[in-house]
Specification:
The chain is of the alpha+beta class. The chain is built from 8 helices and 8 strands, in the order ααββββββαββααααα. Helices cover 48% and strands 22% of the residues. The strands form 2 sheets. The protein has a 4-stranded antiparallel sheet with strand order 1-8-3-6. Strands 2-7-4-5 form a 4-stranded antiparallel sheet.
Length: 196
């Protein structure tokens, strides 16, 4: 793997834990690098997810499609975020989700069996992943709460905070789907937010 790509991952780990050069070399030894074109799949519904994916650059979305063919976006992942389907990973069952690139993106992939070994071999890496999973769980809970207790404009403003710099490259129909509103409501909310 290109050392400049892994350097981004090393900088990311420093935000959470201190890893030795040997530990980082061990992690790098099991990483693979992948470029994704816009709309290229990382995971398709029906496949079993067996990876851990770290976004180096770009934006990915996780979504499902209902029986009427309507997309339901579960989340976006941007630089320095992990994406995947934990349910499929843990159960070994086919995924109910798709993950594709919203824009041209680059990811580091680690196979689950290698990832599990890293968690056992490198306590600091295990600590980092536990912290990230806790934060991810809290973010998911906050998103659910926002659907219950916040109006469309508040949800949109929160979206802009979470995805600064990426809102401009995410198509409006995807943003509306993610926020659980129509495109017309999104247009109204954007105008209202811009006038403040």
């Amino acid at each position: 793997m290109d050392s400049t790509i892994f350097e981004i991952f090393k900088k990311y780990t420093r935000r959470y834990v201190k890893l030795t050069d040997e530990e980082l070399a061990r992690i790098e030894s099991v990483c693979t690098y992948k470029k994704l074109r816009k709309q290229q799949y990382l995971l398709q519904e029906g496949d079993v997810w067996k990876l851990h994916a770290f976004i180096v650059r770009g934006c990915l979305r996780t979504y499902s499609i209902d029986e009427q063919g309507k997309e339901h976006i579960v989340g976006f992942g941007v630089n320095n975020w992990w994406v995947g389907d934990r349910e499929s990973l843990k159960s070994g069952k086919p995924s109910k989700f798709n993950i594709d690139a919203v824009i041209k993106s680059e990811v580091i992939l680690i196979r689950d069996r290698d990832f599990t070994r890293l968690l056992k071999e490198i306590p600091a890496f295990n600590e980092m992943i536990s912290t990230i999973l806790d934060r991810s769980f809290m973010a998911a809970q906050q998103r659910i709460l926002s659907f219950i207790s916040h109006c469309a404009e508040e949800r949109y403003l929160a979206f802009l905070e979470v995805y600064p710099g990426f809102a401009a490259c995410i198509p409006k129909n995807m943003i509306a789907s993610f926020l659980g509103i129509t495109r017309e409501t999104l247009s109204r909310v954007r105008k209202s937010a811009a006038s403040k």
